[in-house]
Design goal:
Structural class: alpha/beta
Mean pLDDT: 89
Number of strands: 11
Bound molecules: NADP nicotinamide-adenine-dinucleotide phosphate
Radius of gyration: 20 Å
Strand order of the largest sheet: 3-4-5-8-9-10-11
Low-confidence stretches: 1-31, 35-52
Strand content: 5-15%
Largest sheet: 7 strands, parallel
Number of helices: 13
CATH superfamily: NADP-dependent oxidoreductase domain
Distance between the termini: 37 Å
Length: about 400
């Protein structure tokens, strides 16, 4: 099942120099959030050793879930979505594949996609780029949004037979024989969570899926699901501008039950990176930020004060606003693994560079307090999208 790497990844001199520089910076501010490891070490993805070509870098790892649900991955993942879907213009497929390979080179072992992204073409891209690395890197995907003849219907369908069909189709598109983690993308009001969990339990027993997770569900649903088949991770929106999971019991239940947490849109869809502002024009047919109240020009103008806080704070430590947004999530819990998306090598290096920095609890608290003092303008979703989350 585990292919030997064909295109042996090369540790580029540039990435080495960048990592070395970042490590130097880390020394200046104290122990790193997650230390960059100097030597390669074998990834024990899925509990088995994979081949590690000489020269491939290794970054810090974290474990999502516990017991039989434990899943070891790089401390930062890579969200593939924006390479085809919802993030305006993107480079062509060849460039995206090259960037995904650069991420593998740098030690990223967690890549995130979903059937609905595209639909289908995001999984296809992930399969084409990363299928050859299966067993060494993990491409997680998601079912639930109904897709008929390659088109989204806007409905949910998590009936057992549909999950099974989606699983078979995802396996083909991802060019693998086992899905490292299969998430339910959105709660399906017509299918009891117990049925969904039982279906995943069977798929895990059959060896088609290794782990499972759920997105945007409440604490009660998590308890019910976990009792039937242990969950590895919950994937919901969480970042400095949206901290609902701290208040609605989701992080508490993850802590109590030993479930990992994967914050999606960790930079608030790029906003906390500082490149977006009231003048940004989104590509209407391929960007859902056009539909989000938090991304109107007025809301972005008001919310830019938060980016200003990050930028000012970052100047004290030699960090960028994107690194502070990611570092803030990483320091919250050792079982949190953010999945930032990018189409740019410079941003990939910047985001991974976060792992080399560490601020103390007091500094993070100071940043958090300053950000919290600024009210966030605009809801994260419009009314229709909000109906889909529990
Ligand atoms: N479960 C769910 O319901 C759900 C929902 C949404 C997303 N997701 C997952 O979460 C992943 C990430 O979410 P996302 O794309 O919405 O949000 P994000 O990671 O917060 O932001 C991505 C955007 O940030 C920009 N960016 C990346 N690094 C940057 C940097 N260092 N400085 C400035 N800008 C930077 C990227 O633009 P460039 O291309 O220019 O770098 C991209 O447009 C997705 O790929 C997907 O896998 C899951």
């Amino acid at each position: 099942m585990y292919n030997k790497l064909k295109n042996v990844s090369k540790c580029s001199r540039r990435s080495f120099l960048k990592a070395t520089a970042a490590m130097g910076a880390a020394l200046a501010v104290g122990p790193a959030v997650d230390k960059v490891e100097a030597a390669s070490r074998a990834v024990t993805a899925n509990g088995r050793k994979a081949n590690m070509p000489e020269g491939t870098k290794s970054i810090a790892h974290r474990t999502l879930g516990t017991g039989t649900a434990a899943f070891e991955v790089s401390a930062l993942g890579f969200g593939v979505m924006g390479m085809t879907y919802n993030r305006s213009q993107h480079p062509d497929k060849k460039q995206c594949i090259r960037l995904l390979h650069e991420a593998v080179d740098r030690g990223v072992t967690l890549f995130d996609t979903a059937i609905i992204y595209g639909p289908l073409n995001n999984e296809e891209l992930a399969g084409e780029a990363l299928g050859e690395f299966r067993g060494r890197v993990n491409v997680t995907t998601k079912f639930g949004h109904e897709v008929v003849d390659g088109k989204a219907t806007g409905r949910q369908d998590s009936r057992p037979a549909t999950i099974r069909r989606y699983c078979e189709e995802s396996l083909k598109r991802l060019r693998t024989d086992v899905i490292p983690m299969f998430y339910q993308h959105r709660f399906d009001r017509n299918t009891p969570v117990e049925e969904v969990a039982a279906t995943l339990k069977d798929l895990i027993k059959e060896g088609k899926v290794l782990h499972w997770g759920m997105c945007e569900v409440n604490a009660e649903t998590i308890r019910k699901a976990h009792a039937i088949c242990p969950l590895t991770a919950i994937q919901s929106e969480y970042h400095l501008m949206h901290r609902e999971v701290e208040r609605n019991g989701v992080l508490d239940v993850c802590r109590e039950l030993g479930i990992g947490f994967v914050p999606y849109s960790p930079m608030n869809r790029g906003f906390l990176g500082g490149d977006l502002n009231e003048y940004t024009v989104f590509d209407a047919p391929n960007d859902n930020r056009n539909t989000l109240p938090r991304f109107t020009p007025e809301a972005m103008r008001a919310n830019y004060r938060i980016v200003n806080v990050l930028q000012r704070f970052g100047r004290e430590y030699g960090m960028t606003s994107a690194q502070l947004a990611l570092g803030w999530l990483l320091q919250k819990e050792p079982w949190i693994v953010p999945i930032p998306g990018t189409t740019k090598l410079a941003h990939l290096d910047e985001n991974l560079g976060t792992l080399a920095f560490a601020l103390g609890k007091d500094e993070w608290k100071r940043l958090e307090d300053e950000v919290t003092a600024i009210p966030v303008t605009g809801d994260r979703y419009n009314a229709e999208q909000q109906k889909q989350v529990q």
